[in-house]
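Known limitations

Structure tokens in this collection are predictions and should be treated as such. Users comparing against experimental data should check residue numbering before alignment. To illustrate the layout, the record for ABC transporter substrate-binding protein is reproduced below. The input appears on top and the generated tokens appear beneath it.
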Amino acid sequence: MASSTKNRTKLRAKRTLYVILAAVIVVIAAIGSAFAYQNSQAAGETVVKVGLVGNSDDNVWKAVQAQLDKEHANIKLEYKTFQDGIYTNQALSNKELDITAFQHYAFLNQEIKDKGYKFTVIGNTYVSPFNLYSDKYKSLKDFKSGDKVAIPNNATNLGRALKVLDSAGLIKLKDSSAENPTVDDVQSNPSGIEIVPNDAASILNLLPDYAAGITNTNFVLDAGKSPNDALYAPTISATSKSFRPYVNVIVANTDQKNNSTYKKIVEAYHTSAVATQIKKNSNIPFFSK
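Generated tokens:
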């Protein structure tokens, strides 16, 4: 009985010690965080919140941060990751973000038109491949009538996807040079495929239930794939005017378009070190470095 009581006493003592240790760890962490914040403030460091979609550009923005640090710019980039560009733009408009870097001109202009956002482009970044992927087929000749092909359901990427299908010869558009064609602009469908709009982030998950799908490169990379895995990839030329609407951009609220801190970030982005990281993501830098 005495032994049992002694054991319970030891157990309570251990539990008390664990609670004390846990409390000490929390206090130390809090002190460390406060100390780091004070150091940041003392150094005059400016924190800039950057809105991104997915994680495929993490290394690109790490390279931007490294360039800023190299220049002793006293700018700290804080990344906010979203799964959908629509919500990213909402956050920018609500001043929850300082800048964004995920969308191309066509998507941005459509968002501004639809929602009246006061946004301004402060820098170009890159052109991203927009390819046709399939887990079922190895050749465009394999497609059969009734095969489902998933494409993004937002207006600008839907239009670009239709251009890819036109280029691949699976459909024929009335005017392939139109900026944002819709399914109503399909003149003929010699392959007999069924075009099904879906959320861009989910398209690769639909394969192989769908014969093929077209989606943005950031979602391809996030899924552990490469643009080189594409069944079909239209040729991209950084000098071609036809790709201008699909150049990705850094965007700020219009009232902050001349913000000197943001200009330093764009300058850091437009360096050879960042261009190297962009190319590693199979994208094409769209700035002169």
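For this record: The longest strand covers residues 119-127. Residues 1-8, 29-38 have pLDDT under 50 and may be disordered. Please report discrepancies through the issue tracker.
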